[in-house]
Amino acid sequence: METGFDITLTPRPGFLEFVQDFVNRIHLPDGSSPVIRVRDNAYKTFVQAFICRSSIPFIGQGHEDNKGFELIGDALLNVSACVYMKNCYPQAGVRFWTGRKQCMVANGQGLKDLAEFYGLHNWIIGPPGEGGKKQLPNIMESLIGVLCELYSFDATDRFLQSIFKEHADTWFTNYPLEGQNTRKRVRSKSPVNHKEKLSDMCAKYGWGNPRYESSQEGPPHAPTFRAVCQVGECKVCGNVASTKREAEQDAASQMLA
Questions:
Q1: Domain shared by 137 and 196, yes or no
Q2: What sign results for the dihedral spanned by CA atoms 194, 79, 168, 142?
Q3: Is there a contact between 72 and 184 (Cβ–Cβ < 8 Å)?
Q4: Contacting residues for 26 by C-beta, under 8 A, at least 6 apart
Q5: How far apart are CA 51 and CA 70, in angstroms?
Q6: How many domains is the chain partitioned into structurally?
Q7: End-of-domain residue from the set 142, 175, 208
Q8: Residue 95: which domain range?
Q9: pLDDT tens digit string along 209-220?
Q10: pTM over 0.70
Q11: Which ranges carry the DRBM domain (predicted)?
Q12: 20 to 30 A from 3, CA-CA: which of 105, 192, 211, 248?
């Protein structure tokens, strides 16, 4: 089965160009970008980024895998994503930052998309798919770790901030909620999470977090609920609902209307 490298880890034509294109976003202290040459240590380090544990049975023992770089890359992605969220949405809260950060760095979400964007599948060492669904995202993490190893944390963070600026809005649209919140939304009677949508809008425009006040109406054996949503000085009262959760959703919907 054809793979990105042969048994001696000689890359197919085009790997040098791939690496050079990848590092062109890195800016050295003099403003230039690194120049990659075959047989340089930097080139060999980028090859190592593609050696997963699942690759070893295919290429044989004696090669270092990418686990160390993957660990560093994973940490850097999380730190840089947090910095990006706080800078872009300074008025939002930790829950908002954490939820959006997750979709930027999760294996099956933003990280998967980045791996596809850079065409990492072209350079897999070993049979494609041997490493499972996490193989390409893990290689993406390893490449980030290699950048830090070769060119410093600050240079790598600037690299990631430019990536996030281009792709984050698409990820927020494609992966709007964390897994737990997504499951809650599926169970909800409303197909749209109006509270989440309102929170996103408030964070985007710096309006602060929406506040909700709920009141219970009707007899104890058959209570109903009504909620008031407040954003800044604006207050909107929602319709009567059978649960507090639904009442707050309706109030958020009225605020968005």
A1: no
A2: negative
A3: no
A4: 33, 34, 147, 151, 155, 156, 158, 159
A5: 11
A6: 2
A7: 175
A8: 15-175
A9: 999 999 888 766
A10: no
A11: 193-257
A12: 105
